[in-house]
UniProtKB/TrEMBL annotation:
Lipoyl-binding domain ranges (all copies): 524-599
Pfam families cross-referenced by the UniProt entry: Biotin_lipoyl (PF00364), HMGL-like (PF00682), PYC_OADA (PF02436)
Pyruvate carboxyltransferase domain: residues covered: 6-276
Alphabetical keyword list: Biotin, Ligase
EC id: 6.4.1.7
Entry's Gene Ontology cellular component terms: cytoplasm
Organism: Posidoniimonas corsicana
MF-aspect GO terms: 2-oxoglutarate carboxylase activity; pyruvate carboxylase activity
SUPFAM superfamilies, per the entry: Aldolase (SSF51569), post-HMGL domain-like (SSF89000), Single hybrid motif (SSF51230)
The protein's name in its UniProt record: 2-oxoglutarate carboxylase large subunit
Any one GO BP annotation for this protein: gluconeogenesis
Length: 599
């Protein structure tokens, strides 16, 4: 009896990069591995979207549309190239207006994509109707998604097989056009028995020839079991990756799944020796990139705090950048309460980031002392309807702190009425900065805001993390980011220097270097003459809102920091006049660092 062939999409060059390297990989570095994977017989690739859109502008000094063009040229004209979209959020953390949602599909079609996997983290089907239609109208294949996860132990009310069946029925009732259905478990927490039951029910609900795809991660250690359950229940396809970004926070390796299916009625139908050769090429391509240890590990605590593989390393890397990696275990523990009280949205981008941002705030400022704006907007209904009502106490806190009322209006309706969203304001921004008003540039500014504009202006900073080569003994640290070990009185200290930011044993400081000559000491205002404005968390100065000499009121925002993908206003602690601003846009600041002074 012939074995049943199981299709797979190779996620190595999108989800693999996001899950292992925080999506910070430059295109020329991986194209030889893509070519080797193509030559090994792989013809279905995840090629962009998700975090691999914004990250290229934020960190890689690259245009994502150029990357997609190069991907298509390398993979060949017949390859199925798939990208990831977040419903009305398309490829960002915030939702978009209808004209930007339409432009997203058109631009991805123009730049060589075949299929878009389209999901809503809240499983609010209303967020998939228009976005799905735009994908089909653009001439792309639409893979509509039901998002999955396991609720923290003790929680009930959603995320069981019946809930997923109802979501699928809502998709069918809404008559959303689609070419395939995907069940997507970004945190790898859905237990295999639930995966089996979900897909078994879906197979009964869908036409006999319907194409069902299942996606998970190895984060909790059960991905191969979950894939076996999905296949047994009737799934046509699964997602697999390639070493060095496979296993751990990523998808299982092609070789691992090939091995797991040996002796069964299923096959991947691959030339496994050619796959091995392709992985060797890939490992060589990525040898200079820093691979964080948590990217290749199974994390047993994730079922209590369902952190997706694609978000885990991105967040830990940002914590490393800010010198607070030691607080990560506390944030993972805090995330469980955030999920329990937030309405059970699936822990997948953008909701997973909302969860982590709120957990971050709960650790840094105290439980529920500061509502993260995106999390607050989610519980208030600004991203759609959550699977169950959020905790009323949290809703009240969010409404008070954000000065917003709960809403049941659709995100697209609100965004279409927002004069700051859409094609027109993005085009105006380009014109004001003497930049070409191409469709690509309009979408870049709409999706990436200030950082997209900085890229188009040639001001983007490189944030790719590569392994530092050890310096020669006795030599001074090189310019740019450097890591070294400093021995003082026989005790070793791990030191990282990046411009004016110095991290010692995980704690960040801002420093200035002088020439060592005698000179007048720096002057400062007499004690008590001014009130310092200090950073409440580490981050980067995104923009300043006031200047020296300006009169300010207590609570008025004088600058905005970016921390953990959040915009964090820095408020004046008192009425007065700004005596000085001590930082500039783009500066990395440490927790507690003085940012300004109020006279």
């Amino acid at each position: 009896m012939a074995k049943k062939k199981i299709d797979f999409m190779c996620t190595a060059f999108r989800d693999g990069f996001q899950s292992a390297y925080g999506a910070r990989v430059q295109t020329p570095d991986f194209l030889p591995a893509l070519e080797a994977a193509r030559d090994a017989g792989i013809s279905y690739f995840e090629a962009g979207g998700g975090a691999r859109f914004q990250s290229l502008y934020f960190y890689c000094q690259e245009d994502a549309f150029d990357m997609m063009d190069a991907f298509r040229q390398t993979a060949g004209p017949d390859a199925n190239l798939q990208t990831l979209a977040r419903g009305v959020n398309v490829v960002g953390l915030e939702s978009q207006s209808s004209d930007i949602i339409k432009l997203h599909a058109e631009m991805f079609k123009k730049h060589g994509m075949t299929t878009i996997r389209n999901f809503d983290a809240l499983n609010d089907v209303n967020n998939l109707i228009y976005s799905g239609q735009c994908i089909v109208d653009a001439g792309l294949k639409h893979q509509v998604v039901v998002t999955m996860m396991e609720l923290p132990p003790g929680c009930t009310g959603a995320h069981d097989a019946e809930f997923y069946a109802k979501t699928l029925q809502d998709i069918l009732d809404a008559q959303i056009p689609f070419d395939a259905v995907c069940f997507k478990d970004a945190s790898g927490t859905a237990v295999p028995s639930k995966v089996y039951e979900t897909i078994k029910q879906a197979r009964k609900m869908l036409p006999a020839d319907a194409y069902i795809h299942f996606h998970t991660h190895e984060t909790t250690g059960v991905s191969v079991l979950a894939y076996q359950a999905a296949i047994d229940a009737g799934a046509n396809a699964i997602d697999l990756s390639l070493a060095p970004c496979s296993g751990g926070t990523c998808q299982p390796d092609v070789i691992v799944m090939w091995h797991a299916l040996r002796g069964t009625d299923y096959t991947l139908d691959v030339d496994i020796e050619k796959i091995r050769e392709a992985e060797e090429v890939f490992k060589d391509c990525m040898k200079d990139y820093f691979l964080p240890p948590e990217a290749v590990a199974v994390e047993p605590l994730i079922p209590w705090s369902p952190m997706p593989g694609g978000a885990l390393t991105a967040n830990t890397q940002m914590l490393r950048d800010n010198g607070i990696m030691d607080r990560y275990p506390d944030m993972i523990k805090a995330m469980s309460d955030v999920v329990r009280r937030g309405g059970y949205g699936t822990s997948v981008t953008p909701v997973s980031q909302f969860y982590f941002q709120q957990a971050f705030n709960n650790v840094m400022f105290g439980p529920w002392e500061k509502i993260a704006e995106p999390y607050g907007k989610m519980v208030l209904g600004y991203f759609g309807k959550t699977p169950v009502p959020p905790d009323p106490e949290i809703v009240a806190l969010a409404s008070k702190q954000l000065e917003l009322e709960p809403t049941t209006r659709s995100p697209i309706e609100m965004n279409d009425a927002d004069p700051n969203k859409g094609v027109a304001p993005a085009k105006k921004t380009l014109e004001e900065n003497n930049l070409p008003t191409t469709d690509e540039n309009i979408f870049i500014v709409a999706a990436c805001k200030e950082k997209g504009l900085a890229f188009l202006q040639g001001k983007a900073e490189l944030g790719v993390r590569k392994v530092e080569k050890p310096a020669a003994a006795g030599s001074a640290p090189a310019t740019g980011a450097s890591d070294f070990v400093l021995k003082v009185d026989g005790k070793q200290h791990k030191v990282s220097v990046n411009g004016g930011a110095v991290t010692v044993n995980g704690k960040s400081y801002q420093v200035e270097l002088a020439d060592g000559q005698d000179g007048p000491a720096a002057t400062s205002a007499p004690a008590g003459a001014t009130t310092p404005v200090n950073a409440q968390m580490p981050g980067v100065v995104l923009r300043t809102l006031a200047s020296a000499g300006d009169a300010v009121k207590q609570g008025q925002a004088i600058m905005v920091l970016e921390a953990m993908k959040m915009e964090v206003p820095v408020a004046s602690p008192c009425d007065g006049q700004i005596a000085e601003i001590n930082v500039s846009q783009g500066d990395q600041v440490a927790n507690g660092q003085q940012l300004a002074a109020i006279g």
